[in-house]
Amino acid sequence: MRWFAATTLPRQEMVAAENLRAQEFEFLLPRMRVSKRHARRVVEAIDPVFPGYIFIQMDPELTAWRRINGTRGISHLVMSGERPLPARKGVVETIISSIGPDGLIKFTDPVQPGAKVRLVAGPLAEALGEVVSLDGRGRVKLMLGLFGTSIHAEVKREKLVAA
């Protein structure tokens, strides 16, 4: 049994998952919790880690894999010529090992004390700095190198990315 990727129709990953489940295929749709800005506020949502893709476990010699291409929500299997292209060994297994008890992928936050970061919003956007500390309210204390000197600043976590 190997893992294969299939492309889904736009924003149809959940439809594809339900229809693959109905056909009794083993599949993986890795999802993660994300924060999105919408109408001037931040909204928590659960989105696919790989939008437009779903992984299916099968043996192409023993499975009627062509019916996957006709599954609602699926565009087509990723192919190599006339055969489905398997994912590299260990890739999907690593993803599975990163799934938490809530069924969502757990990523390590790169914004930790000592990490190099870049501001992405605000008057100092694009400035580089180093994380000094984090608090439990989503605020990060930084040491920014500006104008030949070091400046301390405190910003919201969502205004930073790893440098």
Describe, in short, the structure shown.
The protein is mainly β and 163 residues long. Helix content is 10%, strand content 43%. It has 2 domains: 2-97, Alpha-Beta Plaits (2-Layer Sandwich), CATH 3.30.70.940; 116-162, SH3 type barrels, CATH 2.30.30.30.
General description of the model:
- By secondary structure, the protein is mostly beta strands.
- The chain starts with a strand and ends with a strand.
- The chain is built from two helices and 13 strands, in the order βαβββββββαβββββ.
- The chain is elongated.
- The strands form four sheets. The chain has a five-stranded antiparallel sheet, with no helix packed on it. Strands 2-5-1-6 form a four-stranded antiparallel sheet. A two-stranded antiparallel sheet has the order 3-4.
Name some characteristics of this structure.
163 residues; mainly beta; Alpha-Beta Plaits; SH3 type barrels; 5-stranded antiparallel beta sheet
Largest sheet: 5 strands, antiparallel
Query: Which class do the helix and strand fractions yield?
Result: mainly beta
Output mean pLDDT.
91
Reading side by side through the largest sheet, how are the strands ordered?
A: 12-11-10-9-13
Tell me roughly what share of residues is in helical segments: 10-25%
Give Rg in angstroms.
21 Å
Order of helices and strands: EHEEEEEEEHEEEEE
Give the number of domains.
2
- Contiguous helical run count: 2
In whole angstroms, the N-to-C terminal distance is 39 Å
